[in-house]
Amino acid sequence: MKILLMLPSLFLLSGCVDLGDVGIHPEEETYYVNQGKNQVIDCLHYAASKANLSLEYDDTLPENIDKYNLMNTENTTVAWVEISNFNGRQTSVEFYYAPHAPDIHRSVTTIAERCT
């Protein structure tokens, strides 16, 4: 009975998050860059624009991780990007994108290779 009472609020809450094209079980690619975090962010902005995508700031997560959305020309999120300091000398860049999306995989690889 309690479950039936909770269902309406669960349905309302489930509509509050826009996953874009990423989905709930994304692929993950991690890259380590031998540059400072701000330099990496600048490079990712430039590399995304060269791939006809844009990198938009979303939020700061715990442990000082900056979360960005990689957006296509239709303003749809095609990947999530998490950027953080790693090991004091490197920056970690994690891309999360839809599985079975070869065009996004190619774009992520191209963007990452420009900045590593």
UniProtKB/TrEMBL annotation:
The keyword Signal applies. It comes from the Bacteria. Residues 1-19 form the signal peptide. Keywords: Signal. This is Lipoprotein. It comes from Klebsiella quasipneumoniae subsp. quasipneumoniae.
